[in-house]
Amino acid sequence: MLKTKRKFLFFASLIFTFSSILAINLPSNPSNTVLAEVDDTAQYFLDLLREDDPYLTARALKHIKENWEKGYEIMLLEAIYFARSKRHSNKLLQILEQKTGKKFGLDYDKWFQWIWNKESAYPDAYFEYKSKLHRLIDPKFGKYFLNRSHQSTIRLDEVRWGGVLQDGIPPLRNPKMIIPLEANYLKDSAIVFGIEVNGDARAYPKQILAWHEMFVDEVGGVPVAGVYCTLCGTVILYKTEHEGVNHQMGTSGFLYRSNKLMYDKATQSLWSTLEGEPVIGPLVGKGIQLDYLSVVTTTWGEWKKRHPDTKVLSLDTGHRRDYREGVAYRDYFATDDLMFTVPEIDKSLKNKDEILAIRLPEQTNENLAISSRFLKRKSIYQNKIGNTSFTVFTDKSGAHRVFKTGTLDFLEYDGISTAKDSNGNTWTIEENNLEGPNGKTIERLHSFNAFWFGYKAAYPDVTLIK
Fold first, then answer.
1. Any idea what DSSP says for residue 444?
2. pLDDT digits over 63-73, tens only?
3. How far apart are CA 336 and CA 331, in angstroms?
4. Per residue in 111-154, pLDDT tens?
5. Tens digits of per-residue pLDDT, 144-157?
6. Element (H, E) at 246
7. pTM of this prediction?
8. What is the secondary structure of 121-157 as a DSSP string?
9. What is the pLDDT of residues 324-370, one digit of tens each?
């Protein structure tokens, strides 16, 4: 992970080397608000990165030391993080340690955690600074934060660059699908993310989607986006159309508590992957929340048994990647280490232990995380969230499907597709509902898998069942 982080920082340093002289401290241009509306505080912190101009750097240091405010901590820390040389980082670090009384050295995780566990205190100028700072990496990044200090529902200091440009991890847009007989690259044991919308069954192999982290398509006549956050282990499927507007989603390049942030092309607002709603930008407060659709994590062998008419991703994605199983993020998945830290590590489970997340935000504030290891020992698990009773069926592949079963009590499950209730009735487990006697159906309850650390970071009050 340290190697990956160094690669990210090296990439950023190269960009700063060639861009800082051109992009920082340019004269005002009335036709360009990105350049014209940067306040003095933001500019002083940007000048800290002007290692090519000792006068500007010295002036900025003097001003910041003499006018120090509590909210400057995160701005100075980000300047240290992106400084091109260790010598300059250490020079800035001395100021940070002097003003805060903390001695964390260049252990960025400790600095970030210390800041995040205090009350938020950054000034509005931080939005200007963050916009201009990250615009040096990708000009598109500037729009995410500029003039948006009053259009945010999350802490800006917890929004971190993930090391790639906008759509630098390229989403698969209307990807080519093939029939199972043509998918000779897939082993039956390969992990796939399966969906079925209006009878249209699709499988998205992890070994491909890990390189792209998102697919945008029309499935069963419904425009959708499937979002895979490799760092936090979540795969969530959304309807992208809301009140007549089809939001064109992409990968922002930023994270919030190690969870991927999406963006929409029209407004460049940042969106929560877990919530399906905008969290920074002009769409905040507009009542927009995308509808969830069900997705299951299973094996290719089990999925095609259940859905012989399924389609599956072709290797012909339009991109050149090593799509062999287990190649993408191999080092990250091989350990319990994090690439990007979170405010607090909860050791109730290992960081990357898988949980099943169940929420009904429209009905209750309750939030459940059920250990996948626990569920694999209980092929039938019944509980309640709010006033909704549910049953989790975990099949032989370890895939979880959750249904709103009310007062029904299920006693038997064959581990494939058939269950029996306490009244002796037989039910068939489909992707989106349970089918029972006399044509009765029971709705599936939205749920998804996630790594424990990322879900707990996003929802500190979650109840863990293990």
1. B
2. 999 999 989 99
3. 10
4. 999 999 999 999 999 999 999 999 999 999 999 999 999 999 99
5. 999 999 999 999 99
6. strand 245-246
7. 0.91
8. ---THHHHHHHHHHHTT-GGGHHHHTT-TTSBSS-GG
9. 999 999 999 999 999 999 999 999 999 999 999 999 998 999 999 99
Amino acid identity, residue 391? T
What is the torsional sign of CA 228, 232, 233, 235?
negative
- Alpha helix positions (H), 37-153: 40-47, 54-66, 72-82, 86-100, 108-116, 125-135, 142-145
Residue type, 82: F
């190690």: which residue's tokens? 258
pLDDT in tens, 443-463: 999 999 999 999 999 999 999
Distance between CA 117 and CA 361 in Å, rounded? 25
Instruction: Mention every residue, 6+ apart, whose C-beta is less than 8 A from residue 191.
Output: 205, 206, 207, 297, 298, 299, 300
Provide the percentage of residues in the chain whose pLDDT is more than 70: 92
259: which 2 tokens? 């969870």
pLDDT at residue 60, rounded to an integer: 96
Contact (Cβ atoms closer than 8 angstroms) between residue 202 and residue 177: yes
At residue 39 the predicted structure's pLDDT band, cuts being 50, 70 and 90, is: low
Backbone torsions φ then ψ of 386, nearest 5 degrees: 60, -130
d(CA 239, CA 456): 25
- Give the contacts of 368 (CB within 8 A, at least 6 positions apart): 357, 358, 359, 383, 385, 462, 463, 465
Three-state SS at 413: strand
Residue for token pair 């877990």: 274
Judged by DSSP in three states, 32 sits in coil
Residue 177: how many other CB atoms lie within 10 Å: 18
Mean pLDDT of the chain: 92
**Residue 408 pLDDT:** 96
User: Among 104, 109, 85, 84, which Cα is nearest to 94's?
Assistant: 104
Contacts of 141 (CB under 8 A, 6+ apart): 131, 134, 135, 161, 166, 253, 254
* Alpha-helical regions (H) of 271-371: 300-306, 330-334
State which amino acid sits at residue 170: P
User: Beta strand pairing status for 311-313 and 354-359?
Assistant: unpaired
Q: Is 88 left (phi over 0), alpha (psi -120 to 50) or beta?
A: alpha
